[in-house]
Amino acid sequence: MGAFVITKKDEDHYKFAYTSRKGKIVFTSSAYELKMDIESDIELIKANAENAFCMKFKTSSGKFFYRLIINDKVYATSRKFNTSLRLEKGVAEVRLYVPKAETLDFTGADIFADL
């Protein structure tokens, strides 16, 4: 099962990344100003992942990616995939595992402070 990982970005902005069971980043969000907004969007994504629209794209270098869209709003952009088959597998994993994903919040404390 995968996990949503919330982190603090730049000064006071937050973002999340959804990581697969194997620890690979599957998709990431844009920046959020408020932590409560990111938490509510994660819950919305989990509740609607099975029916979410994944708009597929191809880069000029031949890589594939998708944008996760729910109710006409883009919530995340996927990592790049080498083939369209891998892209399809990535989309299938989202539909299967995202609704059951846990949320990990790494914004509260500096976990490497004592190192």
From TrEMBL:
<dbReference type="InterPro" id="IPR036913">
    <property type="entry name" value="YegP-like_sf"/>
</dbReference>
<protein>
    <submittedName>
        <fullName>DUF1508 domain-containing protein</fullName>
    </submittedName>
</protein>
